[in-house]
Design goal:
binds histidyl-adenosine monophosphate; five-stranded mixed β-sheet; 424 residues; alpha+beta; eight-stranded mixed β-sheet
C-alpha cells in the first residue's frame, strides 16, 4: 500500500527535538508572567474578511499566501497567517476595553502561510506574539522589546540586532507616500517585477525588497524619518530615549517597513547575524497599530505588538550548540521474571513520589535492559531481583560514570530527589 506523507512545509516535531521547544516555551511563559502578559488562545480558523480588512488585501500574506477555503455552509474561512488580527477580533468581541484600561496578552501557536519553503521558512510555523492595548505611550513598545532582549539572553542567543523605524501616521504618511511613489515611478525600470506592481498598490514595501536592483533604488529614496509630523517625531524620540534608559542597544533603520498594512508609527525587527538562517534572518518584528481596533469595529484603542518565529529561534539555539535533553532520573531493570510485578509497583510508587522513571515493559535479558537504560539517557539504573526485593536494599548504578551506591528501597525517592536538587 502506498503511504500517505505529511503536508509539504508542515513539520512533525519528535523527541528528542521537542525538548528544545519545551525549554523555549517554559522560558517564554515565565518571562511573560514577569512582564504581566497573560495568555490568549484563539482558533486557528477565522473569517477570511478579518485578515483582508486588517493585514491588507495588497499584502503578500493576504494576496498570495493564505490557506482559504469554503466550509460546508459556504463561508470563506482562512487558516490564520498571523495572530494580531485574531487577537484584535477577540479583544473587540469580548469587549475587553470595558473591563480594563490596559491589556497585555501573549500567544504561542501555529500560523499558516503558503510560502516558498527554505531554511527558516515553512507553511506551518509557530509564533510567540505579544499584544498590548490601551496605551499610546512608547513605554509599551519598549517593554515588549525588552522582553524579547531578555528572552534572547535567556536562550543564550547573541548577535541579534534590534532595528527600529517609524512609519508615521495619517497626518504625515500620505505626503511621504506621494513623494515616494513619484521617486519610484522615475526608477520603475530598475525595479523587480513584483515591485513594479507594489509601486502602485503598496509602495512602502518596495523599500524593504531584498532584490539588489530594488535595494539600489531604495538607497536613494526619500526617507520616512525626514517626513514625520511633530507628534510622530516626538513619539519616535521617546522610544529611543526609553530604550537608552534601559540600556537596550538599537539601530535606527528607515527600511523597516514590515509586510502588513496595519502599522502606524513605531515598527521594529530583530535581525540575526548567524548565517544559519540565510535570508530568513528576521527572528521577529512588530509595531504600533493604533487604528486597527477601530477599523475592525471596536472603540478607538491604541495598540502595539510583535511576533517572533519560534522555528528560527530553535535553529539559532541549535546552531549555538545548546542541547536540551529530557532524560529520566532512573531506569528500573528487572533481573528475573519473578521480580516483574514488584518492580512494576516500585516504578509506580517512585513516579507518584515525583521521580521520572522509565523501564522496558517487555523485560528481556539483564544486558539488553541495561543497554536500553543507557540509551534512555537516565542518570541512574536500579536492578531489582529476588534478593533486592527480599532485603529491601539495592544498588543505585550511575550511568554517566562513578561507583554504585547502596540504597534502601524505602529511601529511594528521597535520595533521588536530593541528588537531583544537588546537581540542579
Ligand atoms: P511577521 O513579520 O509577519 O509579523 O511575522 C513575525 C515573525 O514570524 C517573522 O519575523 C518570522 O520570524 C516568523 N515567520 C513569518 N513567516 C514565517 C514562515 N513562513 N516560516 C517561519 N517563520 C515565519 C506578524 O506576524 C505580526 N502579526 C507581528 C505583530 C504582532 N505585529 C503586531 N503585533
Amino acid at each position: 500500500m502506498s503511504r500517505v506523507a505529511g503536508v509539504k512545509g508542515m513539520n512533525d516535531l519528535l523527541p528528542p527535538d521537542s525538548a528544545a521547544w519545551e525549554h523555549l516555551e517554559s522560558i517564554v511563559r515565565s518571562l511573560c508572567h514577569r512582564y504581566g502578559y497573560r495568555e490568549l488562545r484563539t482558533p486557528v480558523l477565522e473569517d477570511t474578511a478579518l485578515f483582508v480588512r486588517s493585514v491588507g488585501e495588497a499584502t503578500d500574506i493576504v494576496g498570495k499566501e493564505m490557506y482559504t477555503f469554503e466550509d460546508k455552509a459556504g463561508r470563506s474561512l482562512s487558516l490564520r497567517p498571523e495572530g494580531t488580527a485574531p487577537a484584535a477580533r477577540a479583544y473587540i468581541e469580548h469587549a475587553v476595553a470595558n473591563r480594563e484600561p490596559v491589556t497585555r496578552w501573549f500567544y504561542m501557536g501555529p500560523m499558516f502561510r503558503y510560502e516558498r519553503m527554505k531554511t527558516g521558512r515553512y507553511r506551518q510555523f509557530h509564533q510567540l506574539g505579544l499584544e498590548g492595548y490601551g496605551a499610546e505611550e512608547p513605554a509599551v513598545e519598549v517593554e515588549q522589546m525588552e522582553l524579547v532582549v531578555e528572552l534572547l539572553r535567556g536562550l543564550g542567543l547573541r548577535d541579534i540586532t534590534l532595528h527600529i523605524n517609524s512609519l508615521g501616521d495619517e497626518a504625515c504618511r500620505p505626503a511621504f507616500q506621494a513623494s515616494l511613489v513619484g521617486y519610484l515611478r522615475d526608477h520603475r525600470e530598475s525595479l523587480c517585477a513584483d515591485c513594479q506592481v507594489r509601486l502602485e498598490k503598496n509602495p512602502l514595501r518596495v523599500l524593504d525588497c531584498k532584490n539588489p536592483g530594488c535595494q539600489q533604488v531604495a538607497a536613494g529614496a526619500p526617507s520616512i524619518l525626514d517626513a514625520l509630523c511633530p507628534d510622530c517625531e516626538a513619539h519616535f524620540a521617546e522610544v529611543q530615549r526609553k530604550l537608552t534608559l534601559l540600556e537596550i542597544p538599537f539601530k535606527v533603520d528607515a527600511r523597516i517597513m514590515r509586510g502588513l498594512d496595519y502599522y502606524t508609527r513605531t515598527t521594529f525587527e530583530f535581525i540575526a547575524a548567524d548565517p544559519v538562517l540565510g535570508t530568513a534572518s528576521t527572528v521577529g518584528g512588530g509595531g504600533r497599530y493604533d487604528r486597527l481596533i477601530k477599523q475592525l469595529g471596536g472603540p478607538q484603542t491604541p495598540a502595539v505588538g510583535l511576533a517572533l518565529g519560534l522555528e528560527r529561534l530553535v535553529l539559532l539555539m541549535e546552531a549555538g550548540g545548546s542541547a536540551h535533553v529530557k532524560a529520566p532520573d532512573l531506569f528500573v531493570v528487572t533481573a528475573e521474571p519473578v521480580a516483574a510485578d514488584p518492580a512494576f509497583t516500585w516504578v509506580s510508587r517512585l513516579r507518584r513520589a515525583g521521580v521520572a522513571v522509565e523501564f522496558d515493559p517487555r523485560g528481556g535479558s539483564l544486558k539488553s535492559q541495561l543497554k536500553r537504560a543507557d540509551k534512555s539517557g537516565a542518570t541512574w539504573a536500579l536492578v531489582l531481583g529476588g534478593a533486592e526485593l527480599e532485603s529491601g536494599q539495592a544498588a543505585l548504578k550511575p550511568l554517566r560514570g562513578g561507583e554504585p551506591e547502596p540504597v534502601r528501597l524505602d529511601d529511594l525517592a528521597e535520595v533521588l530527589r536530593a541528588k537531583r536538587t544537588r546537581t540542579g
